[in-house]
Every structure is written in C-alpha cells, then in structure tokens.
Specification:
Keywords: Cell membrane, Glycoprotein, Membrane, Transmembrane, Transmembrane helix, Transport. The protein is built from 7 helices and no strands. By secondary structure, the chain is mainly alpha-helical. The termini are far apart.
Length: 130
C-alpha cells in the first residue's frame, strides 16, 4: 500500500533554487531587511496621523458637526480595507512590484490633494482615494 495520494502522483514537484535569488528576503542584507521592516511599521500611521489635527480641520473648514470630521479618519481606514480587495487580482495579472509602484504614486498624489483640499468634502474624497 502506497502512502502517496493520487494527487501527489499526478503533480510532480518543481524544485525552486532559493539560494542565489537576490529577491528572496532571506538573502537580503541587514539594512535592507531593517528598511523594509520600518516601511511596514510606518505605513499604518498614515491613517491616524491626521487625528491630532481634527480640531484644526473643524476650525479651518468651519465644520461644527463632529461626525463629519470623524469621517476624515474613518474614510481612510475604509479605503485601506477595500483597496487590497480590489487590487489583489490585478497584482496576480500584472505583478506585485508594478502595482505597488503605481499605488505608491497614486497615494502620493491623493495625499497632496488632501493637503490642498479647499473644503471638507474634497478632503474626505481625497483621503478615501489615498
């Protein structure tokens, strides 16, 4: 009696040479590992970096309704949640690096748009898109 299943017999394994691959994170030097770790730790801060400035937003945009100014923070988190759901299939088609670079440029553009927004509605839209 064989211990291999029928599926294992039909699909032979393909050996992957990891040792010489410079893109394998295990082969990165220490500074590159540390840099990537810091980038991953800092990226969630973008959602909450605006919180201390909410009172200033209320003053600058003459917005007296607290739920509207809270929406500025909430909408970014919603975009942060739905973005990967919508973009993950594209990364399988076009590659992760290309999509990540495009998303970084788009995020930068909408973050600049957020900084230059003239009213609270535009700020909310730019924050969602960022």
């Amino acid at each position: 009696m064989s211990t291999e299943s029928d599926a294992e017999k039909q699909q032979p394994g393909i050996p992957v040479p990891w040792e010489p691959d410079p893109e394998n994170p295990q082969n990165w030097n220490t500074w590159r590992k540390a840099l990537n770790l810091e980038i991953f730790h800092v990226s969630p801060l973008e959602s909450s970096v605006i919180v201390p400035g909410v009172p200033l937003l209320q003053e600058d945009f003459h917005e007296t309704r607290p739920p509207v100014t809270s929406l500025v923070v909430l909408i970014f988190v919603l975009g942060f949640a739905f973005g990967p759901v919508l973009l993950s299939p594209l990364s399988e088609l076009y590659g992760r690096r290309l999509l990540l670079n495009i998303c970084n440029v788009v995020t930068l553009g909408f973050s600049i748009g957020s900084a230059l927004a003239l009213n609270i509605a535009k700020l909310i839209v730019f924050r969602f898109e960022a």
